[in-house]
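Per reviewer request, we include the raw input and output of the structure prediction for the construct analysed in the revised manuscript.
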Amino acid sequence: MRKAPVSARLLDAIEHIGNRLPHPATLFVIFAVLVVIASAIAAQLGISVTHPKDGSLILPVNLLEREQLRRMFTDAPRNFTGFAPLGTVLVTMLGIGVAEGSGLVSAALRALVTRVPRSLLTATVVFAGIAAHTAADAGIIVLPPLAALVFIAFGRHPLAGVAAAFAGVAGGFSASLLPVPLDVLLAGLTQEAVDASRMLPGYRVQLLGNYWFMAAATPLLAVVGTWITSRIVEPRLGVWSGETHGAPVTTPTADAAERRGLRAAGVAALATFATIAMLAAAPWSPLRIEGATTLDRMKPFFDSIVTLVMLVTLIPGLAFGIAAGRIRSDHDVARMMSDSMGQMATYIVLAFTAAQFVNWFAWSNLGAIIAISGAEQLRSWGLTRAPLLTSFVMFSAVLDVFIASASAKWAILAPVFVPMFTLLGFTPEATQVVYRIGDSVTNVVTPLMPYMPFVLATVQRYSPRAGTGTVIAMMLPYALAFLVFWTALLLLFYGMHWPIGPGVGMRLAG
């Protein structure tokens, strides 16, 4: 019997190992228990470091002591309700729930990819996938099957459409021209890490601290994804034979009600953005205060980003639903918001366990000890600046193959790497942006990506013998190309000292 190729065996091993990992919520329970044990061992060994900012001695706190055990019980609810990402994510999802529940998201994506000339089809599909992040995970359900149908309508291979859409929505996961829920979620975890480390007293992590960089990455990844599709993936797939497996192939079109809804949503979106722009610019705006610089004066505006993102999705969603006849009363709106909250149940469970881990880790002082010791070790190795950034991108990319959840990984990594990079001169937002590159690019090649079974099912409609390895082999060129070009963009921003967000650079001042 012929032995399977090395690549196939490697993919099988990744899938096998990954499938044996516990649920992310269980992982946090395990890590929390390990923190308790490690704190007791570190305290017993008398490990200590000197705080580089104030010169104080940092000692590990034994979480098995009576007072600390009592604190675990009494503060558990407070840890959960005070968990920075929880409220911000849930508020954001209220608006997205209406936009998705009314049908605006799917209708807008269909309108985008079905009304473009043949020459721009691939670029539009990749760009639409990246743009779909504004509506959380809705894009990955709507876009790959739709792209396959549109590619067939243009006489092209449907799997090329699936690949282009999947590359945009998963491989370019963090890139976006607009603020997305992930910005809010990760910034909250970064703030938790900053506060726990005491490295930057009073420092506030900007919710839009990665915005300029991710907006710049959007056209870059759209171009790279288009080139990979046209020059590598589609030629490899060959000419489409026209066979399908399942329902007949038809390209969906908008009906009169949907077109009416899209027009209303467009007007509502323009009005919403105009109002927000006025609130940001007008001296009389309640979202401005007195200050020495423009950024100081706009602080209330930036602090309101979560609410504004909710309104940007809520108001067009309402307009679409009312005009299309899908929202007939306030009960429909409440139901859509409730459905959105219901979909967040898994996240809420994850947030509870993550909140306990994050707080216990902060109480133990292990994060600060590891960060200070690690920063000193990296300096001794000479691993700073560009090599350090590149190494962390690679580390995040490899870890993403085994733990697909962006928030779960960052909740584990942020308490160590945010203060460590701070000691090496990087802003917390810079550490976060480096992590996001690696966390995105390998989404398309990990068997543990939550939507991989859905993408596989879509592929099998046109290629019934396809397996997970088929999808990964098809998507690997995107992952490698996105990794190279996105990292190159990061090094360009770093070398040119360009801001990665409003008022936020990669290096700390001073």
